[in-house]
Specification:
The strands form five sheets. A five-stranded parallel beta sheet has the order 4-7-10-3-11. A two-stranded antiparallel ribbon has the order 1-2. Helix 3 packs across helix 12. It contains 15 helices and 13 strands. Helices cover about 45% and strands about 15% of the residues. The two termini are about 20 Å apart. The protein is an alpha/beta fold and about 350 residues long. The chain is globular, with a radius of gyration of 22 Å. The longest helix is centred in the last third of the chain and has 17 residues. Strand 5 and strand 6 form a beta hairpin. It folds into two domains: about 200 residues, P-loop containing nucleotide triphosphate hydrolases (Rossmann fold); about 100 residues, Orthogonal Bundle (Helicase, Ruva Protein, domain 3), CATH 1.10.8.
Length: about 350
């Protein structure tokens, strides 16, 4: 590339300011150094599971929330707790149960007889990192108590609203094998999670290392290597990462292919899809792609960034028909076909 300055816009659309890619690349390399520090520190405790750690960082850098689905014992709780320690941030864990009440999450008003007045008792949602463990074990009214906190970054107790301290990240987990005594998340609520991440078993090598660490002297101490202020600064850098209009169009095509597959030579998917990705899918796909480029310490988004995060962004935003279930077609199958057919810029 002889000229690192890339103009944006087309004759039919308002042009955007020109971007100096080389200067932006250098700036992102400096700003993203925080990622290597956090990865190195979490590796003291978390063996393998690099995908889960990177997805936590994606959500953190994009102001998004994460729904983790995986079997028990795969270090989901340990991962977010460790991440909070590396950033010197507050952490709280909420165990969702059928008898949980909304006030157990957000807090409530408590009467003080000595002062003859009510005072606010804040709940565990007032933390930088909140783990909603087994979120599908509580009824819908309790699940929805998180919605205002997740979307508006505030909590209302009585008549007073309280802003939540940034950075604020909710990581909810659910067990894919237990169905009895669970309350499936409504589609409107799962759509508020930026990513849905499936966690698998570790490799044989990683599991051997897990055994050795647990039977040995224990895990190394995790030290703070970043501050909340540095995370907020990194978020600003993520927003500055350059996304070409061709990448924007690629994102739009991927999402629209889940809504109108027949327009993208995917007519065979039409009877399998009940509903496709919402506008939140497009927004979060773009944000996650920028955050992935930041993790790769790059100042611009490539199609591979979009493809890398596509499954995690879309898998909980595509509704399948009964015909798809009868044919054992999953959301991953649909996304895979879309990625194979939609033209890559």
């Amino acid at each position: 590339m002889t000229d690192p300055t890339i103009p944006s816009g087309s004759p039919t659309e308002p042009s955007r300011p020109a971007v100096d890619i080389e200067a932006l690349n250098q700036q992102i390399r400096v700003d993203s150094e925080i990622v290597e520090r956090i990865r190195k520190e979490t590796a003291k405790v978390i063996v393998g599971q690099e995908h889960m750690i990177d997805r936590l960082l994606l959500g953190l850098l994009s102001r998004g929330h994460i729904l983790l689905e995986g079997l028990p014992g795969l270090a989901k709780t340990l991962a977010i707790n460790t991440l909070s320690k590396t950033i010197n941030a507050s952490f709280s864990r909420i165990q969702f149960t059928p008898d949980l009440l909304p006030a157990d999450i957000v807090g409530t008003m408590i009467y003080n007889p000595a002062e003859n007045d009510f005072s606010v008792k804040k709940g565990p949602v007032f933390a930088n990192f909140v783990l909603a463990d087994e979120i599908n074990r509580a009824p819908a009214k309790v699940q929805s108590a998180l919605l205002e906190a997740m979307q508006e970054r505030q909590v209302t107790i009585g008549t007073t609203s309280f802003k939540l301290e940034e950075p604020f990240l909710v990581m909810a987990t659910q067990n894919p094998i237990d169905q009895e005594g669970t309350y499936p998340l409504p589609e409107a609520q799962t759509d508020r999670f930026m990513l849905k991440v499936n966690i698998g078993y570790p490799t044989k090598t990683d599991e051997r290392e897990i055994i050795r660490r647990n039977l040995g002297k224990g895990f190394e101490k995790v030290n703070p290597v970043a501050t909340p202020a540095e995370i907020l600064k990194a978020r600003e850098s993520v927003r500055k990462i350059y996304m070409d209009e061709k990448i924007e169009q690629y994102i739009i095509d991927l999402v629209f292919a889940t809504r109108n597959p027949e327009e993208y030579r995917l007519a065979e998917l039409k009877p399998l899809i009940n509903y496709g990705g919402s506008p939140r899918a497009s927004i979060n796909l773009a944000l996650a792609a920028k955050a992935h480029a930041f993790l790769e310490r790059r100042g611009f988004v490539t199609p591979e960034d979009v493809r890398e995060v596509c499954f995690d962004v879309l898998r909980h935003r595509i509704g399948l028909t009964y015909e798809a279930e009868a044919e054992n077609v999953s959301q991953e199958d649909v996304i895979g076909r879309v990625l194979n057919v939609v033209e890559v810029p």
